[in-house]
Amino acid sequence: MSGLQIDITLDKFNTLRLKSIAKAYIKLETLTELNEIAELSKQYPKFFILGGGSNLILPEYYEGLVVHNHLKGIAIDSVDTEFKTVTAMAGENWDEFVAFCCENEAHGLENLSLIPGTVGASPIQNIGAYGVEVKDFINHVSVFDLTSQSIKQLDNASCKFSYRNSYLKNNPQYIVISVTFKLPRKIKLNISYGDIATQMAAIKSPTPLDLRNCIIKTRQSKLPNPAEIGNVGSFFHNPIITTNDAENLRHKYPDLPVYDLEDKGYKKISAGWLIDKLGLKGYRSGNVGVYPKQALVLVNYEPASKSDILALAEMIKEKVANNYGVRLNIEPIIL
Ligand code: EPU
Q: What is this structure's pTM?
């Protein structure tokens, strides 16, 4: 195939900034290439789709094929009295897409501003921040099924979205082609999240752009910029535990942030708080560490390898399990 490259460095394609070489690499730029990619994927025992590389832990050598999704394009499909339906191709940068929606009076995604990565990755792990999850605005996802070599549309229900998870995450035979969003035209700002509510209260008649700017400012103050220091955002999920266990922990640790879920039998608790209270914020071991401003984020001071970062993660998991009896799960995909 035309664009196939061998032994390509992935250093610039992962925000954790791990040094990594892929045995084979190819860019996906047009839909006509999908069948060829399906054939190619059969020749490699391992295979993955690369988007913005912001949620990946790469090995030093990846013995497989990397397909780099560069499908581009954004279009407003339809407008009715209530909604604008907008489709973005999978390789579009997520934050640029949010900016486009803000400029085009298609609302709701402001809280998801500045999340690193691509549009195609957004439904896979159901990205979320500041009280909003992308699932609330997705109409359908167009995918290429490598098994049947055909294009399919998965509606919102078929995507089986849950906290940082979806049907797509567990079915890697689907390549996301594009995501179609149904975005309200009427402004309804979601400023329910603690920090954001306080900042927005100071603005008279706030606009969606004000909210976007507030989210950007908040993220920049708490989260490391991957262009400056390697990271994958939150390294662990916030654990979901039984309401009974959450109440017992709350009894012992009254400050522990506990969030309600639709299922009353379970609560979500703050992993960042658990790690912080163990005194690990700012902890450093060799060239990896816990970000000094947000304990849920692990950082690469470079050079470091997959095993360095996973050793740190294991140490944190063990301490959290021993101290609180809570199991942490790693959020990024480990290759
Ligand atoms: N906290 C601490 N110490 C810390 C970190 C957090 O005490 O070091 C406390 C905070 O004071 C706050 C609570 O924990 O009371 C929650 O902290 P924060 O608002 O920073 O959010 P988070 O729960 O740590 C989640 C998402 C982030 C998202 C933020 C904001 C996950 C795994 N992470 O983090 O998403 O930006 O909420 O909505 O759900 C990501 O997925 O990569 C990500 C950055």
A: 0.97
